[in-house]
Design goal:
The chain is α+β, with helices and mostly antiparallel strands and 359 residues long. The protein folds into 4 domains: 1-89, no CATH class; 117-174, no CATH class; 198-245, no CATH class; 291-358, no CATH class. Helices cover 11% and strands 25% of the residues. The protein is built from 4 helices and 17 strands. It has helices spanning 15-20, 27-42, 79-87, 239-245, and strands at 117-122, 125-132, 147-152, 158-165, 172-174, 199-202, 210-213, 218-221, 264-268, 273-277, 280-284, 295-301, 315-318, 323-327, 339-342, 345-350, 353-358. The longest helix has 16 residues, at 27-42. The protein is rod-shaped, with a radius of gyration of 54 Å.
Length: 359
């Protein structure tokens, strides 16, 4: 056998040894030696491509140099061709499967305002764009390169952002409605209608019950509000708590015959219990302890100009400057009726006579 299995060619005869041994040159010896040469050459790879390799060739960490770029699917690839295809892979028609302990795909944007995006298309028309670092330039303090997802219509037209995550704060911005299938856990703050705008929180998928902020006040529509018993002074109180704390029926504002929806104020001024309707003060209440026992009527009397007997049926009303519009059915003086008078004394009719109680 010409080769010994390790790639070393072995001759059949040694002509010098034969000569020393007195062995004559023989045709059969020459044929055996030449047959070995032929067998050895047949196992070699010819440079013109005639030989078909029948086993794997170990190159012992050596290079195959000066190869042409591959053409057919099974052609060997050069380094230059591989580097070019990795940098610009073109269209990949098969799945990409990376199997390792921590597989990672790196999108490295080298421009200041560049973005790192992944597109989802349908028949070559864009549907979604995911950007792992948008086009907002970085300016320090973790500003810029935010995360966002964008939507496109059937023709590839831009519809708008669906989700944005701020890189610096981690704050999410969902630009449309969001459905949570089970439970949403919020460990900090939920802003609905941030910046003072109106907002809605729907309770139930029918939308009939919702907590609504209209920009000024809150309203829970569509259902009564269940409130536990309050624990501190600023807690909301439920009906059971209020009923248990009051032993009387509170006064109801409005609702009576002929009543309108004015706001009524009753409060202590330091001098007495006062009444006010909206922005109009109505004066102090007269308490029983302040009334003179036996008084049946009262009047205001001008100092010296008018006697008490001259107008026993006087009807009067006092204005803020103590000017009295008065009409008397038995007026004795020559003033026109009705007349305007300035009174000084307040009198009460007690036990058949008028008693002055204040000036």
């Amino acid at each position: 056998m010409p080769f010994n299995g390790s790639g070393v060619f072995q001759r059949v005869r040694n002509w010098m040894a034969d000569a020393t041994a007195g062995i004559k040159i023989r045709a059969d010896y020459h044929d055996a030696e030449d047959d070995g040469f032929a067998t050895g050459l047949t196992n070699c790879i010819t440079r013109d491509g005639q030989t078909i390799v029948t086993e794997n060739i170990p190159f012992n960490s050596k290079r195959i140099t000066a190869l042409a770029d591959p053409v057919n699917a099974q052609d060997a690839s050069t380094k230059a061709y591989t580097d070019t295809r990795v940098a610009n892979p073109g269209t990949v028609t098969g799945d990409i499967n990376i199997t390792k302990d921590a597989p990672t795909i790196v999108l490295n944007s080298t421009a200041a305002g560049g973005s790192s995006g992944i597109q989802g298309t349908r028949n070559g028309v864009i549907r979604w764009l995911l950007r792992l670092g948008n086009g907002e330039a970085e300016s320090g303090s973790n500003v810029g390169s935010n995360f966002d997802i964008h939507r496109y219509d059937d023709a590839g037209g831009y519809l708008g952002p669906a989700l944005t995550i701020n890189r610096a704060s981690g704050a999410w911005s969902v630009n449309t409605s969001m459905t949570v299938g089970t439970t949403a856990v919020i460990n900090s703050t939920l802003h609905v209608g941030a910046g003072g705008a109106a907002g809605l929180i729907y309770l139930g998928n029918s939308g009939q019950r919702h907590l609504h902020f209209d920009g000024t006040r809150y309203a829970l529509a569509g259902a009564p509000t269940y409130v536990e018993a309050p624990q501190v002074g600023t807690d909301a109180a439920n009906k059971n708590y209020v009923d248990g704390r009051t032993s009387f029926t509170p006064v109801q504002q409005d609702g009576g015959a002929g009543m309108v929806g004015n706001k009524i104020y009753i409060g202590w001024t330091g001098a007495g219990l006062a009444l006010q309707v909206d922005n109009s003060p109505q004066g102090l209440f007269a308490m029983q302890s302040q009334l003179v026992s036996g008084a049946t009527t009262g009047r205001r009397v001008h100092n010296g100009d008018v006697s008490s007997a001259s107008y026993p049926h006087l009807v009067w009303a006092e204005s803020s400057n103590s000017v009295i519009s008065a009409f008397a059915s038995s007026w004795q003086a020559s003033y026109p009726i009705p007349a305007l008078f300035r009174f000084k004394y307040t009198q009460l009719f007690v036990s058949g006579g008028w008693v002055t109680i204040t000036g």
